[in-house]
């Protein structure tokens, strides 16, 4: 790779310059005399270096979830358009994600129903149903706790029970086999009659249990309603106490606060209100002051019109003899309210226990009736092929019961970990259902008028909508689509591979953002700046010059064999319709300086000395030595400040040149057409007799080709 050389380009305006080269005729190649015109054009210096094409913008794609890659529609090197489907996960993962979406939709529907219910008053049937749901949830918790406790610490009685069940299963096998042997006997009329009687008794017991349950439900619904009514009445009395004594209306939130809290929050001093001095008009006026929380007319009536003796506060020893204490009256009303609230909670607990017992009685009676009916039906079926088949099935069932009983005994002695986890999960689910049922019951009691509840339900709907949106987004992510238009560069997995969460499946390169990475020699790096224009040629695109810009200069030098270079990045403007591949060889020419519209002559034509440069100018058919001033240049071209004019012909000699080595063949090519860029060494700062170096201002560099 070339590490950087100065480029000189001239006559970019496109003038055609003809140089007449006269070679000596002697065989030793002593050199020739060259004539060239003085021209006015642009002088451009640039640093050139070889590099390679890099596509820096790459997008790594992953599913964001674990699964099996079941479909891969692209391979390395494929072009993709934004939105193209390129990969999919397995159906099991998709089904699970779709299930999550459906569950989220169900949750949203439930939240919307609860919001609608929060805006409508609840009926008595709704309240009774909600109470039944609470009771059922409490039962479920008790059963789940009992099941978990049995798993974690099985009782001796349980072990005995499971052992007995195993023994009973063994006996059951014996009995089933005996029954198979006895099937050829005719049905026993006495057994049929006994079975019928047993079924009748079981039906009667079930009817009684259902009746008792209905009575219990009715009675407890009334009792719970009475308790709730008592709470409402006590709340009304509590509100009335404040209104009666102070003309102060409690808010809904204050009904649940004790008097001291309410008075402190409202800034009410009972001692000051009910012990005014005769000249304290704040408490003696009959006109209500809207800026105070109390009603002045009410306070006036108690202080000046009531026949009773009244104290605002009671003191540490209680009310004074013969006085009515306002503080004590308010506290008594509050104590009554707390009492009925506690009573209501106790009533609900007793109702739950009673209804649970009634429900269990009905379930037991139903099971007994089912068993009795089965016995009755079995007693009437005559022996035959069906009986034999059923008897054989009974034997198989008894054997399965023995296996089940043995499994239960083993699990009781050492339950599997997943069984314990499942039992704990059942308990948490039951607790969550109870919390929901309690919340639902409380909500129904305030439904339609509790703005705070309505706000809560609206927030639940919004949350459910967000969960649904997220679930749909995750479900959509199971199908991978190209987020950008580009080229597939890396494919890390094959169809059938198991993917972990966030495994990078493939990478897509953006072919519209192209850079050339090049190394520039330390002697040239200071002449390059970020933002400088560059011309890029690519071996794969012969004859094309692409436009580029320096976008980065590495801060650290790279030490190589005999040289030190710096990394430089050139960002290339990709022509429409072109597609560049990463790794292609490229040469970038970074413009370091440009002089427009200056007089140029070949640097080799400059003679004289450093302080008195001259040119050999053809005038009147003969050569004339003309003094000139220099205004910069480089090793190839010198810029003339004064002494000659555009169009003058200068003459100079070049040693050891021939038709193949004449550098001004290149010079002519550069001055023709649209101009060109050429590789030369950099000019010195002034120096010598000007025949080997440019004038002052050129960039010093060596050709490292």
Protein architecture, described:
- The chain is of the alpha+beta class and 705 residues long.
- The chain is 45% helix and 22% strand.
- The protein contains twelve helices and 27 strands.
- The strands form five sheets. It has a six-stranded antiparallel beta barrel with strand order 4-15-19-17-16-20. Strands 2, 3, 21, 22, 23 and 26 form a six-stranded antiparallel sheet that branches. Strands 5-14-12-7 form a four-stranded antiparallel sheet, with no helix packed on it.
- A hairpin with a 7-residue loop joins strand 16 and strand 17.
- The chain is elongated.
- The N terminus and C terminus are likely disordered.
Mean pLDDT: 79
The helical percent reads 40-55%
Number of helices: 12
In angstroms, what separates the terminal alpha carbons? 8 Å
Judging from the principal axes of the Cα atoms, what is the shape? Answer: elongated
Q: How many DSSP-defined strands? A: 27
What is the topology, as strand order, of the major beta sheet?
A: 4-15-19-17-16-20
Return residue spans where pLDDT drops below 50 for at least 5 consecutive residues.
1-30, 664-705
